[in-house]
Amino acid sequence: MDTPTTPATWQTPDDLRALLPDRKLIESQVQAALAEDVGTGDLTAALLPSRQQAQVELITREAAVLSGSAWFDAAFRLLDSSVALHWEARDGDWISAGQRLCVLTGPTRTLLTAERTAINYLQTLSGTATRARAYAQAVAGLPVRVLDTRKTLPGLRIQQKYAVRCGGCHNHRMGLYDAILIKENHILAAGSISAALQAAQNGNPGVEIEIEVEGLAELAQALNAGARLILLDNFSLTELREAVALNAGRARLEASGGVNLSTIRAIAETGVDRISVGDLTKDVTAVDLSMRFVS
Question: What is the pLDDT of residue 160?
Fold first, then answer.
């Protein structure tokens, strides 16, 4: 696979480091993963001499965007802080098949015990970043943001949203606590679009409020009620163009539903401001990585 053009939204390595969760949070996530795998101890690694040292290298077997090195590192260092890791690629880099990514030196037992947990993180997050890069490339040159959703793998919300940024796309709300998205059932429970918006606006100063609409008539109601961010749910291309014309710049419009790599360019060309894509995080294919001993 040829190296793709870097999308304008791609983050520099320094930018990505700033987006990483707190180190203690990363360690707690990895500790839970290690506990799941190691349990009361690695019975197979215990067959090896306790003082034995080794060096291993991490290789990618396919082209991808790298993401998740902080979680990979933590898997080894939580077991033994003496493990030395030397990275030859950084998160956000396009990596090629056969490329060496990292060299690790430390106790043989530790290298073998942490291997699966570390690679699970790296291959899953790199797979997420690689998919994000493909979506970012698909809309290159257009003034639109491609956003992830809450359709993440259980337990990997924070990690996958970081990986999305590594790939050059953007984050929607992290969860139910940091923004309001009024959907069909919320509207039905509130009684109307205007009532739902009013309740949100009255009690949540400074919180981003978005409302979902399912047709042009509902879009008009939302605009008349003062909505400033509107989700257009499963609109056709014709309806999206009509929605952009009707909106006339009054609110930011987000398209959602039926979005994949074959449709996103046409959706973006309708003039919407944002496109949310569940496929970024829920249908991820792990990158093929291999860790092998070199001495």
Answer: 98
